[in-house]
Amino acid sequence: MTNQFQNSLNELTLLLQSKINRNNAVHMSAYVKNRFLFFGIKTLERRKLTLKWWKMFQNSSEVELLNIANELWNLEQREFHYVGSDTLKKHKSMLTSSALNTLKRLVINNSWWDTVDNLAAHPVGLIKINFIFRSVTNS
Questions:
Q1: 3-137 has which fold?
Q2: Over the stretch 81-139, which tens digit does the pLDDT of each residue have?
Q3: Cβ neighbours of residue 25 under 8 Å, at least 6 residues apart?
């Protein structure tokens, strides 16, 4: 992991920690049958907080984006998984079929309907559509 990436991950962690809502966290964790810990940050607020953070990755490569998502998936709080999923959704046009193994790992690990649906509908869905389109046009 590069220093720049580690710094950005630290920045994101501080950003999310600054908005901890313990009451929301209890309810959010209960909703997912206590399978995950939460900071207690609701979706709209989390996306507002991470908007600037996402801009750091506009010029990232596919490998860098997948590494970011993997690192976020390895962290404990569910909001990190959401940021990873949202980051891949936001930059899905940069992903190719070589991303499918990593996306499969993300779907299987820390799995719940919310991230599975987001990954399946966006990055995985676009890759599959592009693959089918290329197959049809190359026939």
A1: Leucine-rich Repeat Variant (1.25.10)
A2: 999 999 998 888 888 888 888 999 998 998 888 887 888 776 777 777 666 556 556 65
A3: 37, 38, 39, 40
pTM: 0.86
CA dihedral of 116, 38, 63, 111, whole degrees rounded to 10: -30
- pLDDT tens, residue by residue, 47-85: 999 988 887 777 789 999 999 999 999 999 999 999 999
Closest C-alpha to 104, from 92, 120, 80, 88: 120
Quote the tokens at residue 103. Answer: 């996306």
